[in-house]
Backbone:
């Protein structure tokens, strides 16, 4: 018997001992032969090593990672320092996150997978802002949502789901029948629950079975996230790159779910969907007032301030307020609306913890991304917020590792098939 690192496991190896994931959840018993799906599930659930029969670590060839040159490390540090603007100094948690961001950025530079905002892109945005085509009308956050919400009707299946939820006769079978009326929604939910994101050992083939395992409220929450991303699938990308926008949103949702998973009693699906939708107000601003949003984006760059602060200065409100009002207009449950509305100001919200988790997920996603789609400068996050969440600095690296292993599957589900 040999204990191997998760990245050393190969299909065909046989488990010598059972494998458990986070929260001590049993994933696989001893004796099974690993396939690609089982290895993917183990990675998604944060497994770092496993005992296998007939193989030891010395049998696995050493692959020494390439050293990162001092020049690349200096460049990476400059990029991350520019984003953080000194906000990490004096806080052990943020200092550790800053360190991990520098290492990740350096690796991306070395691998040529870092895509910063180019001078040509910034020049194009400046030209876009100088065009003599002002936004059609001035808005408050409330008037913006009121004028746009009729053009962005939420899918009718969601109304049917809410109606069924309120019925005394609601059951997994009846809810399954309602959800199954939308084939696209059904297919995405089944793909999601069968992905390593959940890590169920046997395949789930019906919505009714998915509801039985996850619960009605959890599945309804996932349906909200899937429906909302589909509603905004045709936003023009003249100001923001929509692929990169949604990648950041999925990344934030995945991180929020992992952070929430460290706190007993929290619904992880609720935090995933709140993270997925946290910036949805930006899309409404892009639809109705692209010139103003473009000016806010450039102001953020020129003044080195968070995008939400620049939006306040240019528009008088920011995307978190718009997003919260939009979800409220759609009849989305208060628990989700609250997190979206307050994710840049969790100290003003109750309960503090919910919005705080989304803010931290947003900040980590911003620091880890490879594509500079728009927002660049780290948001202001207070010591009280970090204290409320209560994560030790040592928890950051395992969470980031899990996030990386789950992200590609979630991007494939929520973006490439939207």
Residues:
């Amino acid at each position: 018997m040999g204990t191997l690192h998760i990245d050393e496991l190969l299909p065909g190896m046989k488990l010598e001992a059972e494998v458990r994931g986070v929260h001590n959840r049993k994933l696989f018993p001893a004796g099974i032969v690993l396939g690609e799906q089982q290895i993917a599930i183990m990675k998604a659930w944060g497994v770092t090593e496993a005992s296998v029969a007939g193989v030891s670590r010395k049998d696995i060839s050493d692959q020494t990672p390439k050293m990162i040159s001092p020049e690349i490390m200096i460049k990476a540090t400059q990029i991350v320092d520019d984003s953080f603007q000194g906000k990490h100094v004096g806080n052990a948690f943020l200092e550790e996150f800053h360190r991990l961001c520098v290492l990740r950025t350096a690796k991306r530079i070395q691998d040529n997978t870092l895509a910063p905002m180019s001078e040509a892109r910034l020049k194009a945005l400046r030209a876009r802002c100088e065009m003599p085509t002002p936004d059609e009308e001035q808005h408050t956050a409330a008037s913006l949502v009121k004028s746009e919400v009729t053009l962005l009707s939420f899918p009718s299946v969601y109304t049917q789901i809410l109606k069924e939820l309120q019925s005394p006769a609601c059951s997994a079978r009846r809810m399954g029948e309602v959800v199954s009326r939308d084939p696209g929604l059904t297919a995405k939910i089944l793909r999601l629950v069968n992905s390593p994101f959940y890590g169920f050992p046997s395949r789930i083939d019906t919505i009714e079975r998915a509801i039985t395992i996850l619960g009605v409220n959890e599945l309804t929450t996932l349906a909200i996230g899937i429906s909302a991303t589909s509603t905004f699938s045709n936003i023009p990308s003249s100001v923001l790159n929509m692929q990169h926008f949604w990648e950041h949103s999925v990344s934030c949702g995945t991180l929020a779910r992992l952070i929430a998973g460290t706190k007993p009693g929290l619904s992880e699906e609720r935090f995933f969907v709140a993270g997925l939708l946290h910036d949805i107000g930006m899309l409404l601003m892009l639809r109705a007032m692209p010139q103003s949003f473009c000016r806010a984006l450039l102001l953020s760059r020129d003044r080195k301030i968070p995008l939400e602060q620049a939006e306040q200065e240019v528009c008088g409100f920011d995307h978190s307020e718009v997003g919260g009002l939009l979800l409220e207009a759609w009849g989305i449950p208060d628990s989700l609306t609250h997190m979206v509305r307050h994710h840049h100001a969790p100290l003003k919200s109750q309960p503090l913890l919910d919005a705080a988790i989304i803010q931290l997920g947003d900040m980590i996603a911003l620091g880890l991304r490879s594509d500079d789609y728009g927002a660049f400068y780290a948001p202001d996050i207070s010591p009280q917020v970090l204290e409320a969440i209560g994560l030790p600095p040592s928890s950051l690296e395992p969470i980031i590792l899990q996030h990386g292993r789950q992200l590609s599957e979630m991007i494939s589900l929520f973006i490439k098939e939207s």
About this structure: Residues 60-65 have pLDDT under 50 and may be disordered. The first helix runs from residue 36 to 44. DSSP finds 20 helices and four strands in the chain.
